[in-house]
Amino acid sequence: MLMQEWISRSAQETFHLGQKLGTMLKAGDLVAFRGDLGAGKTCCIQGIAVGLGVSDPSLVTSPTFTLIQEYQGRFPIYHFDVYRLTHEDDLYDLGYEEYFYGEGVTLVEWAERIPNFLPAEHLAVHLHIETDQTRYAQLHAYGACYENLLRNFTPLGSA
Predict the structure, then answer these.
(1) What is the 3-state secondary structure (H, E, C) of 96-153?
(2) Is 26 among the domain residues?
(3) Which domain holds residue 94?
(4) What are the pLDDT digits (tens) for 97-149?
């Protein structure tokens, strides 16, 4: 497993790091986000969406109560927030396999709540609050295609 670390010193930097990552994602990719409340998961996902061709980042909001939100970029973008998921098995009711193994890019907030459902190959982003503005992130590549992605990803503010 390949791992990369970076430090973001502002929400704008977190957004731009996500945007750069978004330009590198392709149909079928899944990015699993972990981190504390307020760590910047949604901000990073807004950047990814813009990197994938969504023109207005304000349209990208965390689907806390709906569990999934879909956006259209270069490919469909499936944004999951599983924070309020009562049981892992509730993912079956959402038809998660169509999204996780589909033709779009899947972004999952609070992925630590559904470890048994994540594909073996995915990119994991762990965000940690350091200060009010500073975030520490680790990107973990599970699988050869994600290792290749990380080898070619040079974010600003690397740790």
Answers:
(1) HHHHHCCCCEEEEECHHHCHHHCCCCEEEEEEEECCCCCEEEEEEEECHHHHHHHHCC
(2) yes
(3) 2-151
(4) 999 999 999 999 999 999 999 999 999 999 999 988 899 999 999 999 999 99
